[in-house]
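WARN no homologs supplied; continuing
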Amino acid sequence: MNVTKDEFRSYIECFLSTLEATAAQYLPEDLRRHILHLSLLPARVIGYVSTQFGVAIEYQPADATLIEVRLGSARVEDLLVQAPSTLRDVGPAVQIAARGLRMFNMILSGGFPFRLMNSEADATIADTAFKDGPWRRQVHYAEVFGDRSRQRWAKEQAVAAAKDEVLLALSNFADLAARQSSQMRAAIIEARRAGGRAVTLWEDVRRFKEKGVLLLGDYSETGAARLEAISRALMELGYAPFLVKDVSQHPHQAAFQTTLTLGAMSRFIVADDSSKASHLCEIESCRFAGFVMVILRAHEHPRSFMTAGLSHTSNVIHEMEYDPATPVAAVTEAVRWAEHKLEELGTAYDETYRRGTCN
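OK structure emitted
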């Protein structure tokens, strides 16, 4: 069965609403604009459903987001391109037989712009013009698909696609932090050789350390639920939490080195130590590095002797109990402690380094 006009509209509405809600849940406002489809909004979103072949979604710049869906008997390429009828019988400038073709910043002329060769093919078009003689069609952004099956455009697929897009953005954000940190030493050395200063690099690091919080814990089903609740609480307080598992492992780094890299890039660290998992080793690495860290433990959960009492021998580690069902109060207290400790450290280091008491 093929998707209907109303079903396609429901898909688009569900995708955009899920994308906006998920991005608001997991990303600070200034990062949401970097998500592809959110960066296109507000827009006039036009869905094209062909009763012959394919579907498409076009985004046209607008003052407010409006969704409309058009149904037609012509192929989807014809519905989208809107070329003169005399051009439809001319061979295509581009033939698309596979998934993932991108046409960005192009001008296509001298024939019908493009044709999908089978139902598996799809294409993304951005800032591209199609023209022939006096006719011209400018596409700001559009996605064209040969597959028009109802299963492909079900609401469940819309939810999954939206969440995947936000997850990708989160991963890219964390990867950027890791790359910046791994490149930091080389950039500083190069800047010193040139007699200059790595101003841009340090500015990027400074911006990330303003809100980035490394969140450690157990990734099992129950552990992940606790981490998600803590993450939401941190975001409500204006921070950008992320997990080690969301960052691609660098081929030349051991796992503990990745944790140290991310810890160095973070403002502070929050660890959920309510069950035994690999985060026990991560906490130990961060303790050794001297990072500011809050260790949260759920009420009445057994604790590991590996991490119990770490705050006894470190004044940059704070241990506290919390209720996973309502973590906001505890996370707020944890953040307050961490920020106070960072301020305290800033004053101490200023005294140490600026006055030259270290040689």
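Residues 180-199 have pLDDT under 50 and may be disordered.
OK
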